[in-house]
């Protein structure tokens, strides 16, 4: 069996994501969205639930109201039957992972880079969603359902190339109505694009999550003495003669940035969370699961 | 030259640069090192921040000190320092330089020339007359001419060491007759060995003035060949070292290379000379290829022993009945086995006894020959030191006059002895282990060598001592007797496989090798008498450095001179006369020289030691440390520590021992059943109990007796030792790693089988959630062939029990396995199709078999099945399916083959009727 390195990386990413998502049952997006379902692109979820198409007759069980019994079918035998319809949804989830060079940072060789962790989270989330029958795709790519889509996503994610600059921003043109967005980035560079994205999303009724993925070194700023800081692309430099003295100011700015992001997100009906690469990915995944399911 | 204690400086003015060091100190101190460079994505958040307390940075004192030390070392190095330099002597009389030029002077020849040259140059500067005595044994008779010293330099530079020993003119007084008046100062650059005339020269020179002796810088070693029945080498050395001896010769490709390394034996020291024997203990194939032996790391003619006939292969004459020509009968010929055994290590001559004797062989082998016409010549040849090996045989056994047959080591009884034949009682006899001190010591007779017939020896008091090898009943197998200088050996069996299977065992080859090695090599003198060889022509000669040179411009050497060893007209090398080749080797016994009345210079104090190089190296080392220190400041200590570690620590490859899980080893030993650990404790317990229940049933009803079931972790465990793997599917189990899938695929390809159990037979097929998705997800990377439900005529339905359904805890669900090949048709009269090829690598079903098989600790069923009696019957059927499955896994389609037996019998019957 010969496999190219890219195939092998995709396979490893996939098995990691499967490991991270194994403990979560299939995720079905919140009922609130399912209610507003009449939209082009509705698709069956291959299970019983609210929908238009016939799914199956099943014997009436305790808890079925008399209204739900299909009398025409029941009249043909002694038992009562309920006519189930196939669950349908028009929801699709778009995933976006920042490809800025800053995401390629890892403070210690035993920690994954932020990009690696973000890819893992994105794919694991996609698998949970796909298991629930949802349509998932990278932002700007067609969203599809089905098991094969997980493989396709893994290959697409592995194929992502870092940008030239430190930061990266999603194109707001790719937003579609009836979409949920999951944005994974470090939000360390100029966050002006967040404003634009959220404004457009709120206008289209698109909800979503902002997830900040940071390295522990960025959370605690463990530097001191004379240090020349350089961003990963080399675009920005900061020369300090007393890095230890900058710690408080840096942490304050980081908290301020998070606060700003949270306020913007909540203002647009979005959610904001952050994750440190030294923590287990399952923690962040459970949070995403709760937020998206809620 | 400026002297500061023991150190002299050739260029003292450079030292003034040391004044600049304090200035450098101030400059370096003022320049801070570069700040640490850190890649950090959060720089954007730092923009515009101002340091509250900027820390002043200065170069640390230790870094400053390192740099100053480096600069100081450089300045000192360029001032031309030397340790204890030699100061000129101030003599005025004539100078005589005696330069030993034999092979023993070759190792440090350039140093000797330099020493002599500097002495002559100094003498020339002081205007002293000088003479040069080149002690290579080729000095012109008469007085040694004294001349201005610089005129001798050209002759000195052209001098080369010779490949024989150092030699001095016979008469010192005559040679020194032309010496000018005044105290004669002598510089004797000696090779450390004693030579003829040396003592006379020393006393003559000490009478006329001072003698300074420069001893060799290195201990002299030489190698010589001790010819004889077993040639060996002798290593003589002036020190205790025991360098390896390289055996050099053409390899099978014809390229000259080192063939073997010989390790010298125990040392024996006498008169300051250490000698060590070096046994040439090499396989004959290798030894015959060697062209020269050489001391490792020594480049002079005395360290080289050229190999000639004395270390070459033996010539063996084979006498026997001519081969039968037919190819198949070659294996019956006695000569065939002898030829095959002897060809690799010896030169074979075949023919009649007369022809063979004429070729002067070392060994003659007679295969079952009696009453020879040339017995007289043969006896004379043996008397002269020949080795005669005879083999018994039917002809010898039948010979009537065997009592009087000459050239036999023991008296033989007429008529052989059959052991283990069709008409005899005993079993074929094996060979007793060989005596520890005999010719065959160290050889081990293989247990399967058996002697079926032999020639018996007449009992005699000396029979035991003549016996080299005997059978388990102590009757002789090989006997030997000395006759004159030679010996006669008799094998009491044939040389072919008729009387024993000894000739087709490796022992036969070893025994013949050992015997042939005891043969004496023909003495060189004897042949020289036969044919007159007055002159020997040099073929290859060695120069003083032990390098082979073409022999050009050399006259043939009279045979009488050859015995004197190498000399001025006969350099060491290979000399040929007719077919014979003889090596003249320079090395031999050493004798240490002593120097009464002379000043012996201590070695190593000659020219003063230049310390410029070490100082430069020190400066480079300090600068490297400085780079490390700077890196530690800029990049943090870790980088520097890593660099330092990389420099200091040699990487040690981790011992890669292949570990085998003892559980799995047990599984291979006991044909234990195995199940995949899913992580769900309840399912795993059910698998374990189920497989234990099935194991018990198998042990009760069949000849398969499996041990305790084995739990398999797909990610870690090696599957190659398992036969069947039970894999219950749960929706929560994590998929195995890609490596585990590779192992699983290999497992299935190499004959293993996986029983997938989705355990959802109660709910499958009614549209609810089932395990099919989980199964798909888990099994999709596996190489699973096209599947079909088990066909009615599949061998699984009859591999032990006849079954039509395959129930487990649930029943009625299809069980899938590899689809039968398309187009398989049932033969006429046979109820099943012929589906013989291949055992399905997977069986997939949802009947939750493990739960049906499961028994708890007390042997009771662990899970209920169905209702009442019917349920128990279903459990029995589940067990039968398990038994069938194991039979299918273990025996493949063996049962399917059996169904052809009636057809085969029928066909045989028909052929019998049709046949004659």
In short:
The complex is a heterodimer of chains A (294) and B (916). Chain A has 294 residues and is α/β, with parallel strands linked by helices. Helix content of chain A is 38%, strand content 20%.
Protein described:
Chain A has 294 residues and is of the alpha/beta class. Chain A has two domains: 5-32 and 90-293, Rossmann fold (3-Layer(aba) Sandwich); 45-88, no CATH class. Chain A has nine helices and ten strands. A five-stranded parallel β-sheet of chain A has the order 5-4-6-7-10. In chain A, helix 6 links the parallel strand 6 and strand 7. The radius of gyration of chain A is 23 Å and the shape is elongated. The two termini of chain A are 44 Å apart. Mean pLDDT of chain A is 80; it is low at 28-42. Chain B folds into five domains: 1-33 and 57-85 and 608-648, no CATH class; 95-219 and 593-604, 3-Layer(aba) Sandwich (Rossmann fold), CATH 3.40.50; 223-314 and 536-588, no CATH class; 318-520, Class I glutamine amidotransferase (GATase) domain (Rossmann fold), CATH 3.40.50.880; 662-790 and 807-823 and 839-892, Rossmann fold (3-Layer(aba) Sandwich), CATH 3.40.50.12140. In chain B, the strands form eight sheets. A seven-stranded mixed β-sheet of chain B has the order 19-18-20-21-26-25-24, with helices on both faces. Chain B has a seven-stranded mixed β-sheet with strand order 35-34-36-37-40-39-38, sandwiched between helices. In chain B, strands 7-6-5-8-9-32 form a six-stranded mixed β-sheet. Residues 523-532 and 650-657 of chain B have low confidence and may be disordered. Chain A binds chain B through residues 1, 8, 11-12, 15, 18-19, 22-23, 56, 102-103, 105, 114, 147, 166, 186, 188-190, 215, 217-218, 221, 223, 225-232, 236-242, 245-246, 249-250, 253-254, 257, and chain B through 34-47, 49, 51-55, 57, 732-735, 737-738, 742, 745, 767, 773, 776-777.
